[in-house]
Each structure stands twice: as structure tokens, then as C-alpha cells.
Amino acid sequence: MDAHSHFQQSSSTLRVPLRMRLVNLRFWIRACILVVASSTLFTFIVLLPCRTINTVDVRDLQISSQALPESQQHHTENIASNRINEYNNSPVRKKPRTGDSKSKNRNSVDTSNHQHLEDLIANIDQRPQSVRYKEIECLINGDYSIVGRREGSEVYLPFSFVSKYFEVEGSIASYDGYERFEWHHSNARIHKPVPYRHDGPFMSFAHYSVENRDRVKYFSGTEGVPISTQWDSQGYFYPIQIAQFGLSHYSKNLTEQDPNVLVVDNGEGEGSKWRAEDSASSTSVIYDSTRHSNVIEFKSQAGKPSYGHGVSVSINERSLPVLSFDLLMFRNSTITVVMQTEESGIVNLHYTSHIEECTHRGSNVFYGIGPAYKWRTITRDLITDLRKGMNYKEKQPKTKKKSRTTKILKIFLQGKGRIDNITLSSSNHMNQFFDAADWLVRHQDEKGGWPIMVNRNVDSDMDELKANWYSAMAQGQAISTLVRAYERTKIQGYLNSALRAIELYKVPSSEGGVQARFMDKYTWYEEYPTNPSSFVLNGFIYSLIGLYDLKSSTSQEEGREAARLFQDGMRSLKALLPMFDTGSGSIYDLRHVTLGKAPNLARWDYHATHISQLQLIATIDSDPLFQRTVDRWIGYIKGKRAKHN
Predict the structure, then answer these.
(1) Residue 517 C-beta-side C-alpha neighbours within 13 Å
(2) Each residue of 520-572: pLDDT tens digit?
(3) Which residues on neighbouring strands pair with residue 113, listed in sequence order?
(4) In whole angstroms, what is the distance from residue 274 CA to residue 412 CA?
(5) Which residue pairs, CB below 8 angstroms and at least 24 apart, start in 628-632?
(6) Of the spans 82-96, 116-130, 315-329, which averages the highest pLDDT?
(7) Region of residue 512 (phi > 0: left; psi between -120 and 50: alpha; otherwise: beta)
(8) How far is the C-alpha of 292 from the C-alpha of 486, rounded, in Å?
(9) For 590-614, how does the pLDDT look when each residue is reduced to its tens digit (9 = 90+)?
């Protein structure tokens, strides 16, 4: 056999197995296609209806009774009825009706009835149609209309309308693996009451932050207390706000953990921490005979605050924003704190020996703390000074463990003076409390009061209060502050100032005092001594708390007058308190009685204040009126209302 013939025979021999392989391949391809098609058909015909019935709310099942055997009709009705009753009797539907993939066993049917459900599935004529909404015009009181949605006999209105119309709040919250809508009748927060003591926390003031109020313009460099813009954009010392600043820090000191403290320098350490920025600047540790301790004396060329001269110490700290130091400083001297912010970069806070108040120039903020010819303690919240000085908004950490975004880099001393006990801390509540108490002692006038130096127009139908008027609320909260300062230090000056403050309680408001009479029978201490009288509830109760604090802190003889004024006020409160109840909230004052106009309803935050005050009163007076009123008024916060006839 020649080579050509051998090749042909070999090719013929190989061609037959190849054909068989191709035939087999075509067979397997067709088999695979058939399996896929069968699986798809099985899914659509059998599995998809099963899944559908598992996600459909039982209430939506539309089953043709004619399609079921008579023996199964009653059983089917019982199953549906039981599931509907179970649903309707549940106070809160905790699972969505459709597709929450994170919820387990969502809307599943009891497996004990598996056989009966198979019977149901087998006899369903068609899948239930989903509920369809349609828009519907909603006419509101015949005055205007909005667009709502209709589902059968139910009509749904946009919550943006409901919120404004009924003054309620709500938002969508997502947790526990699904979304829910949370409705709040009010935003009022009520804190758990504790037995009241005249030397203890003041109400819920531990939760107050006077520093964060928009109506606080800044904190005075010379006084260490807030400057208010509440009724005058230029700013002024408002005694109520100053007392609240003190009481909040006093209360925080009793309720918070001890602060973290970094001692920068107290004159007792070995070696100098300070670096001279130029050859003319220096520091030294000397003994001060007035303090009976070592202090740091600093010297440098006088001039405008600037880099390149003076002495400095590096800090590099984020979590301790409260600076405190004792100071003896002469003219043309400055203490500068260099800070790094996320928003504005490097910013310098300058505390100067001038009396100029807060100013802002570029990246420099100036606070005049005045010359200190005598030793005095200065405490500054650097974040507050920065924010108020240049409208910088500090990003607060989400948790206490995380540091702030603002970093304290350095402290500079320039000019000439002495300094001691320089610390940075997470808080210094007692220093700030005494800033307020000392201001009250220094600024009390000969009448025993703290006049409010702005005009105030409470109501267009009342005479305007001209600057230099007194407030019973200011008197009461000042007394509460001074009593606590006395209890803390036993310095008689604080108590003497508190005793003088009650004199204005005895003077009629028409004669420049704060006392009014309701129906010529009940004594009332006016927050606003208007003509005609306004009878503000929260200011009156604050004035009573001040009297209670004073009588509790003094001997029976020394506190006799405070006790008498307190009892007169309590008799009025018990008689008139029901007049402040609307059946769904509380009333701010009684101008609807004295002026014959619509009631001045209390906002929810004032309503919460009324509740907190009455909770306090209920701990010092056993009359059940107060606790009953508290319980009823707390109910109003959750939408409860008094019964109608």
C-alpha cells in the first residue's frame, strides 16, 4: 500500500469517531436547554405563586368561595379571620406589609396550617391586585385645598401639612432592620425630678448651656459673664441670663464627673517650660508675698500682640478647651492662645489689658480683660470665645472619646505681669459659677435689685417698660445663685446680698417694685411689672424658689421676711394655678384676663418649664394639687386632652 492510500484509510478511520462526538455534543446541548426551560417553567407555574402568597397580607387575599370545596370554605374563612384579628389586635404593626429583606419571617403564615395553605394556593383564581392610590382634593375648613391620597375609604394627607396644622412633629427612623415613622405630639423634654435642696442642683439646669444660646453675643472679658442680645442687638448685661449661667454650671459641677485637668505651669515645677521669642523677653519664678507662693513673672517689650516677641509654651491639646489662670497684669500686656481650626486654619485669641470688648480682625479675636492691678482668677471657654468671636462653628465629637476638631497649639505671654496656676481642663464649672455670683454682688444697686437696662414692650396694650426696670424672676434666680455661693464658701457677703434682694418683693410694681395683686386678693411677684399686670407663671415660680432657698439657708429670725413672702406667694399659686390650664396645654400668663384678649398659650418648651417647676414645688409642698397638675400636664405633651361635656 502506497503512502497516499494509507493516508486516505487513516483519515476515513478518524472521521467516524469525530461524527459520533459531534452528535453526542448536540445531544447534551439540547438536554441542557430542556432542563433550563423546564426549571424556568416550573418556577413561573409553581414556585412564584407560592412566594407570592407568602408575601401577601392575609387581608388582601381575594378567594372565590365557589372555587373551594364546601368542606374547605369554612376552614379558609377561619384562617383569614384569625390572621386579620391577630393583625388588628396588635397595638403596633412592627413589620412592613411588603418587601423588607432584612426582616426574618416577614408576614409568614403559620407552618402548622401548611396543608391548608396548599389547598388555598391550589384554588386561588388569580394573584391579589396591589392597593392603588389615587389623588384627591382635600378642602380644609372651606378655606383652601391641598392634594391628598385615597385608598378605598381612607384618605391620607401629607405630614408636612399635618405637622404645621396640628403643631406636631414626626420623622422617618430606620433601625432594627426596618423603617418606621415616629410621631411626637411635642418636642418637650421632661427630666426625672429629684428632691429639691437649696444647696443642690437647680431644677434641670445641669442640661442648660447658656454658652450655646444664639442670643448670647459673647462673654465679657472683664466680667466673665454673658452679654445678651435678647432685646437689644448692641448687647447688655441681663441679670436673668447671668444667674442662669451660674446656676447651670453649679448644677453641672454636682452631676458630672470630675474634669480632666492639664497643669501648664503653677510656678512650682523645676526648669522653665517657657521659650523666649526674642532677646528682650524672659520669665522667672519668684515668690509673691501676697499669695504666699511662687509665681511666674514675665517680661517683654510692650506693643501690639505679634509673633517674634514675648515668651511661649507649646500645648498641642484638643480635648481640654477651658483655660484658667491667676493673673496680675499691667497695661499693654497680652495673653495669646494660638489655635488651629478645621475651618479657618490658625486663629489667635488675644486677651489684652485693654477694656475693649470682643473684636474680630482677620484671624485674630481680641477680648479686653482689663488691667489686673490685683490678683484675679480668669476662666475662659476657648471654643466659646472662638465661636462667638468669629462665628466659628466647632464640630462637636459624636462621642466623648473622640477629640474635638480644634487644637490648642501655644500660649504666648507679652508685656509685663505675673501669672500662676495656668491650667487647661475639660470643664471648670465652679470658677464660672463664681464669675456669675461675684457679678451679682458687684452690680446689686441700693434697692437690692439688678435693673434691666433695656426697654421692653410685652404687649401692645400694655405700657412699655422703660430701661431700669426690675424683674421678680431676676431677683429670684439671683437669690438662688447667691445662696449657693454662700453655702459653698460661707462668705457672709453672698448671703447679705441675697437678703437685700427681697426688698423689691415688697414694693408694688406701680412704684418700681415687682409686687402685683390679682383681684386685690392674691399677691403675685411679676417677671414683667407691666401696667396692667401680666401675671407670668414661670417667672413667678422662679421668684418663689429664690425665697424658699433664702429661708432655707438662714436662721428662723434672719429668714422670717423671706418665709412670709414665700407663704403669700404659695397661697396665690394654689389659688390661681388652675387658670393656667387649657385642657390641652398651659398658658404663659394671664393677659387674657387683664386685657380681655385671646390667651397667650405657652410654647411646648415653656410648658415643659412649668412642669419642671411644679415637680420641684411638689417636693417641698405636699398639697396634692401640684402632683395632679404635673401628671395632667405631662399627659398634654403626649396629646391627651381634658374631657369635654
Answers:
(1) 7
(2) 999 999 999 999 999 999 999 999 999 999 999 999 999 999 999 999 999 99
(3) none
(4) 9
(5) 629/577, 629/581, 632/581
(6) 315-329
(7) left
(8) 25
(9) 999 999 999 999 999 999 999 999 9
pLDDT: which is higher, 596 or 401 = 596
Measure the CA–CA gap between 389 and 384, rounded to whole angstroms: 8
Q: Which residue has the higher pLDDT, 611 or 58?
A: 611
What's the count of helices (H) and strands (E) in the chain, helices before strands?
A: 15, 22
Place of cell 486663629: 347
Q: What's the CA gap between 513 and 500, in Å, rounded? A: 13
pLDDT-derived band at 133, boundaries 50, 70, 90: confident
User: Can you tell me whether residue 339 is helix, strand or coil?
Assistant: strand
- Reported residue count of the chain is 645
d(CA 322, CA 16): 95
Q: In whole angstroms, what is the distance from residue 333 CA to residue 237 CA?
A: 26
* Residue that the C-alpha cell 361635656 belongs to: 645
Residue type, 507: V
Each residue's pLDDT tens digit, 466-479: 999 999 999 999 99
Contact 527, 513 (CB under 8 A): no
d(CA 322, CA 379): 7
Would you say 620 and 548 are in contact if contact means Cβ atoms under 8 Å apart? yes
- Structure pTM? 0.78
The residue to which cell 479686653 is assigned: 368
Whole-number Å distance between alpha carbons of 310 and 305: 9
Instruction: Quote the CA–CA distance of 118 and 47 in Å, as a whole number.
Output: 12
Q: Please count the CA atoms within 13 angstroms of the CA of 24 that sit on its side-chain side.
A: 6
Give the pairing of strands 345-352 and 334-341. Answer: antiparallel
Q: Does the structure show a pLDDT above 70 at 70?
A: no
Residue type, 380: R
User: Which residues contact residue 514 at a Cβ distance below 8 angstroms, ignoring those fewer than 6 apart?
Assistant: 470, 471, 472, 475, 504, 505, 507, 525, 526, 529, 543
- 219 bridge partner residues: 226
CA distance 444 to 482: 12
By the 10 Å C-beta count (0-12 exposed, 13-18 middle, 19+ buried), 432 is classed as: buried
